[in-house]
Specification:
alpha/beta, binds 2-phosphoglycolic acid
Length: about 220
């Protein structure tokens, strides 16, 4: 069973959510399909037969944190998964590994499953092992087998470029020596490359950005 995670980022609206839900609700699959829409669209997925996730959360349950969203509220809305530490959060919003680790601990305490994103930039390509090891340092002693990591090389996100299948296998196998848990691949996953990537033995699933917003393409990816 693989994880097929749709990360809509800051895209989609009420009408798109309705269309996506009616297009995928009758698809039966043995895999874990997880849709991660923007926060205001989560309510649309109340009777959704697949799984629901969020793209971020606060590191606290409640409090004076204007503009933040509590993981408790995400849980109430039906989320079982929360993506944390996406490279866009790390690079654009300056989130540190310490910030991400605080969110991670809170999510596990609330029985939500974190999907922790990691990955190197194009300048760091030759030092990928050191970079991934640094990003994973705080997580190395965690023993929860449900937690999920997503290896997303930053140079591959939204660019149409992916590592070779051998490189993906090498990186993900290395990550699996550093932490417990499942490891997904993310970065320019599309209808053409998804089945090849999902066949890599070390890959537990994929995180899909742009292609998850094209309903027909997304259906082909999850219906493999
Ligand atoms: P992409 O995005 O599939 O559009 O490359 C993946 C991600 O950022 O999670």
């Amino acid at each position: 069973m693989k994880f097929l995670v749709a990360n809509w980022k800051m895209n989609g609206d009420l009408e798109f959510a309705d269309r996506l839900i009616s297009a995928v609700k009758d698809i039966s699959t043995q895999h874990n399909v997880i849709i991660c829409p923007p926060f205001p669209l989560l309510f649309k997925f109340q009777n959704f037969p697949h799984k629901l996730g969020a793209q971020n959360c606060s590191y606290l349950e409640f409090g004076a944190l204007t503009g933040e969203v509590s993981p408790l509220l995400l849980k109430e809305l039906g989320c079982q998964y929360v993506i944390i530490g996406h490279s866009e959060r790390r690079c654009i919003f300056n989130e540190s590994s310490e910030d991400i680790y605080k969110k991670f601990q809170l999510l596990l305490r609330l029985n939500l499953i974190p999907i922790v994103c990691i990955g190197e930039t194009s300048e760091q390509k030759s030092q990928w092992r050191e970079i991934l090891s640094e990003q994973l340092a705080l997580f190395k002693n965690e023993q929860n087998s449900e937690m999920i990591f997503a290896y997303e090389p930053i140079w591959s996100i939204g660019t149409g470029f992916t590592p070779t299948t051998d490189e993906i296998h090498e990186r993900i196998s290395a990550i699996k020596t550093m932490i417990q848990g499942k490891v997904l691949y993310g970065g320019s996953v599309n209808q053409k490359n998804s089945s090849e990537i999902l066949q890599i033995s070390s890959v537990d699933g994929v995180l899909i950005g742009g292609a998850s917003l094209k309903i027909e393409e997304f259906i082909k990816i999850i219906d493999f």
